[in-house]
Amino acid sequence: MSFSSIIDFAALAAIWGSSFLFMRFAVVDFGAIPTAAVRVTVAAAFLLPLMLWKGHAAVFRANWRAICVVGILNSALPFALFSFALLAITTGLSAILNATVPLFGALVAWLWLKDRPTGTRVLGLAIGFLGVALLAWDGASFKPTASGIAPAWAVLACLLATICYAIAASATKRYLSGLPPLVTATGSQVGAAAGLLLPALWLWPAQAPGTRAWLAVAVLGLLCTGIAYILYFRLIEQAGPARALAVTFLVPVFAILYGLLFLGEHVTPRMLACGAVVVCGTALSTGLLKLRILRPQP
Hints:
This protein is an all-alpha fold. The protein has twelve helices and no strands.
C-alpha cells in the first residue's frame, strides 16, 4: 500500500469506529430503517453537488445501474441491519462483529475475482480473526433486552451486513473499476436513498425524533458516510477489495477507544491486548507488515 492509502486506511477506521455510537443515538428515536434512510439521504445531498461540480455527471449516467445496485448492497442493507442490531446489542459488540468483513471479503474475492490471498495475508487474516474472537468472548450477551429483540437476531443481522459489504466490495472492483471514487460514493448513496425511501416513509416514527437523534444522523451522513465512502472507494481502487475491507479489523479498536474517552466505558488490559492482536493481523493482511521467512543455508 502507498503512503496515501495508509493515511486513508487509518482515517477511515477512525471515522467508522465512531459510526456505531451515532447509530445508537439515532436508532432509539428513528427506528432502524428510517435511521439508515436519513443517513444515506444526508450523504447523497452532501456528495451530489460535489460530483456535479467535478463534472462527473456523464460518468454517473453511463454507470448508474451498477452504481445504484452497489449502493443497495454496500449502504442500504448494511446500515439498516446494523441499526436494527444496535437496538439489542452494544456498540462494541457490533463493531467487533463488523470486523468479520475481511474474512467474507477475502472469500468472495477469491471465489469471484480469483484473487487468491498469499500465505502472509492468510496468516494476517487468521491473526486478525483471533483478536476479534478474543474481544467477542467477553462482549457477547444473549440476555433478553428491553427492545424486545433477541440478541441472537441482532448478531445474525450484523453478520448478514458484513456479507453484504463483502459482496459489494468485489462488485465494485468487477463492475466499477476505473470510475472516480466520488462518482461511486455519490451514486451508491443515491441508490441507497432511493431503495430505502418507501420503507422509511412507511415505518417513520409517530413521535418526532429529538435533537440528539437528528444531530447523530447528520454526523452519520456527512462524516461517517459521505466523507468516509470517498476514502473507502478510493482504497478499493488503489489497494483492492480485500485490503480495503481489512480496515474493519481496526474499527473495534477505535470504537473501544471512543467508549473510554466519551462514554466512560471500562477498558481492561485484555481488551488492549486483543486490540494489539487485531492491529498486527491487519498489518499482515494488508501488506503493511511483511514477514521474511529465513531459509537454512546449505
